[in-house]
Amino acid sequence: MSTARSPDHHDAPTGMSVPGLFAGAAFIVLFAGGVLGLAPERQLSDLVADEGLKPYTAQEARGRELYVSMGCAYCHSQQPRDPGQGPDGKRGWGRASTPQDYLFDTPHQLGTMRTGPDLLNIGARQPSVAWHMLHLYQPRAVVPGSIMPSYPYLFEGKPDDKLLPHEQPLTLTGRYAPPAGTVVVPTDDARDLVAYLLSLDRTHPSADLEHLADGDHAEGAPPKKPSP
Amino acid sequence: MADTTSFLLLLTFLVAIAGLLVLIWALTRQQLHTSSKAARVIFPPGDNVVEDAAAVDVAGLAAAVGQSPPDAQRQAELEVLRATDQSSRTPVLLFASSAIAWLLLGSVLGLIVSLKFNWPDWLVGSPLLTFGRLRPMHLNAVAYGWLSMAGVAVALWLLPRLLRTPLRGAWLATVGGVLWNLGTGLGLLAVWLGDTDGLEWLEFPWYADILLVVAGGLVATPLFLTLRHKQVDHLYVSVWYIGAALIWFPILFLVGNLFAWFSGGVPQATANWWFAHNVLGLWFTPIALGSAYYIIPKVLGRPIHSYALSLLGFWALALFYSHVGVHHLIGGPVPTWLVTVSIVTSMMMLVPVVAVAINQHLTVLGALKALKYSPSLRFVVIGAMVYTLVSVQGSLTSLRTVNTVTHFTHYTIAHAHLGAYGFASFIFFGAFYFLLPRLVRFEWPYPKLISAHFWTVVVGFTIYFVFLSIGGVLQGLALQDGGVSFMKSVDVTLPHLLARSIGGTIMTIGHVIFAVHAFLLLRRRGPARQQAPWAATSP
After folding, report:
1. ipTM of this predicted complex?
2. Which of A104, A198, B62, B509 could be disulfide-bonded to A123 (CB atoms 3.0-4.6 Å)?
3. What are the two backbone dihedrals, phi and then psi, of residue B124, each rounded to the nearest 5 degrees?
4. Which chain B residues touch A115 with a CB distance below 8 Å?
5. Is A70 on the interface with B (CB under 8 A)?
């Protein structure tokens, strides 16, 4: 059944030893990691923020954490495409995004699904706090046919005589109205999340698209000049 | 800047081509000596014999392939197999039963999440029930719970067999199994409670990740220890695939998580998708392919069609697959050279995929009748065929003209499930039907439950895949049409999402049947079916 073999017998059929196989496999995957991870990291490390891009405020950052922990990115992307790729601009989703747009985004929330619309410029497209509050509480109250989950736990119901001066109750009518004598108000979480959503505005011009363009062919946008 | 990009592109391409040329040179040098001997390493000396634990009619299986049924002369061979099977019995059973449990949890989570598309106001009273938390729990439960642990179970069983020597340090793998369960459970709990790293496939926070890294090391160690004691002259191709997978996964997991913890913005996104796609191609795929390369010839009693081709397939997979990840970001804010690399290597994947297809499908050709008699073979062959389909689909989907339509749609989800389920899960189902009875020395007690499992998952998944793919394409076409409202792209998917839930329900029923049957088998309950030579008459 078995045969005696010398310790350095090369048995792997390509003429390499077992350690050679595994060193080769390790090298390949690390090389790829370098190409797909480290090289872009270095290539994009000299990025400077565009004028118009500000770091998130403390409230917006809290809101962003909620966006991440609630998994909003599983339905919403944050990467509008170039007109050559799709009519994202026509839908009011904004210009093609650039790496500068994400300088303060950790973790990135680029997303891979558009069960819902792209949100990178939702703050510019929909600046109404009241709209966002209503939409988060019950999406179908503002967008009939929406399949977005509702987030009632970001709000609280209270008797209307307990309403505090600074609190803005949601204007709910018909089947979504709360029981008589009560109102629905946002919690701090809702306020933080909406602050983040309103901060999503990358409509300012982006300095250059050099990092994306291969000479005349740009992945994301027209070459060598910023989008309006 | 154009200089840097061209340089990087050229460098990547040259390394890949150089690797391929080295491989071809090495193969032509060795080919005359090894091709058919190496392929026969999995058969007892001078004897090809059919075998399958799940087959109801072994004689029928043998007749379908034109071989003779197993007989007592194989006793010496059976002793070798029994020794290697028993040597890894404890960790294999631990990983296998854990995997099946995670499959059940993952299926239920998937079903809940799917139904929420059609019932968005269902289960919304708490963050613990919201789509955005349950969906990543589904993904991680099936990826790190079911698929990974099933793959490790098969690896721990298969490697000692292929090296014809007992597993050394099996207890390390058992401890690894406990830690793997802890890490997965802790990670799922964390995501459930909102502590997520926020990156797809990398959601688990560091304290769960650490457990998985340690567990992975504990599992890989016995396998490499055992390699040093091998009793074979030739390493069968499955050893390459599985060994490489065990090197790739810890590296991927560690590096991927480092980017999750310390990086941000676009570079983090490219690394994110390097990681996520490589979990599919350099972890699940090689273990599944390695299993198919063993089970198909073993059940049929015929060696794999072309051994040299299998090695070409292995190295080409390694060289090309590792760069495809960025095809998830086509059209995005990503350097063009990188996207081009990912598309080119995605297309080059046709090379190893065709190599595997020729190999595995030609081995089965002419013996298709055997599928009727062997459930293991049925599952594995379908899985192998789906591998060809899903890979070709993936290559075509990476082309920019196709991608502009399918990107961001349910089509991608359907494709992901074709690979993770139609390919990898089916192969692991087949492998479990083959190996589990050998570990408990008791045949599957109720063959009708095997049939029920088979048909529910085939029918259920076909419904899932066909309807969701169509829905995704319709969604994509609507998204591409600037004259049509966004809501149209949502409306058009609703009936397809409902069909997906129906398909998923049927699949889940199949999983429950499988789990119940596996439980009965492992407890040796139910009728003791025909005596296979390896089934114990005494413990």
Report:
1. 0.90
2. A198
3. -120, 5
4. 117, 490
5. yes
d(CA B533, CA B82): 11
B367 touches B302 (CB < 8 A): yes
Q: Determine which of A147, A176, A217 to mutate to test the interface with B (most B C-beta atoms within 10 Å).
A: A147
- Give me B341's structure tokens: 């690399």
Q: Say how many CB pairs under 8 Å bridge A and B.
A: 292
B residues 73-102 lying closer than 8 A (beta carbon) to A: 76, 80
DSSP string covering B351-420: HHHHHHHHHHHHHHTT-TTHHHH-HHHHHHHHHHHHHHHHHHHHHHHTSHHHHHHHTTSHHHHHHHHIII
How far, in Å, CA of B508 to CA of B114, rounded?
A: 12
Contact call for B335 and A43, based on CB within 8 A: yes
Interface touch B270/A37, C-beta < 8 Å: yes
Nearest to B149 by CA among B111, B202, B191, B105: B105
∠ at Cα B272 (B285, B312), nearest 5°?
30
The answer to whether B260 faces chain A, any CB pair under 8 Å, is: yes
Hey, are the CB atoms on B335 and A139 less than 8 Å from each other?
A: no
pLDDT in tens, chain B (539 residues): 445 555 666 676 677 677 667 666 665 665 434 456 777 778 776 555 666 656 667 777 777 777 766 665 567 777 888 888 999 999 999 999 999 999 999 999 999 999 999 999 999 999 999 999 999 999 999 999 999 999 999 999 999 999 999 999 999 999 999 999 999 999 999 999 999 999 999 999 999 999 999 999 899 999 889 988 988 888 888 998 998 898 888 888 988 898 888 889 998 999 899 899 999 999 999 999 999 999 999 888 888 888 778 888 888 888 888 888 888 888 899 888 888 888 888 888 888 888 888 888 888 888 888 888 899 999 999 999 999 999 999 999 988 889 999 999 999 999 999 999 999 999 999 999 999 999 998 999 999 999 999 999 999 999 999 999 999 999 999 999 999 999 999 999 999 999 999 999 999 999 999 999 999 999 999 888 765 655 544 33
| CA dist., res. B437 & res. B445, Å (int) | 10
Omega into A107 within 30° of 0, i.e. cis?
A: yes
b or e along B146-185 (b: 16 or more beta carbons within 10 Å of the residue's beta carbon)?
A: bbbbbbbbbbbbbbbbbbbbbbbebebbbebbebbbebbb
A6 at the B interface (CB within 8 A)? Answer: no
A 78-97: CB under 8 A from B = 79, 81-82, 85-87, 90-91, 96-97
DSSP class of residue B123 equals S
User: By CA distance, what is A89's nearest residue in B?
Assistant: B482
Smallest Cα distance from B526 to chain A, Å: 37
**Residues of A with CB below 8 A from B136's CB?**
71, 74
Chain B touched by A226 (CB under 8 Å) = no
Instruction: Please identify among residues 177-196 of chain B the ones whose CB lies closer than 8 Å to any CB of chain A.
Output: 194-196
Global pTM?
0.90
Q: How far is CA B327 from CA B179, B343, B347, in A?
A: 34, 6, 11
Q: Which of residues 179-198 of A touch B (CB under 8 A)?
A: none
Burial B229-248 (b: 16+ CB within 10 A, else e): ebebebbbbbbbbbbbbbbb
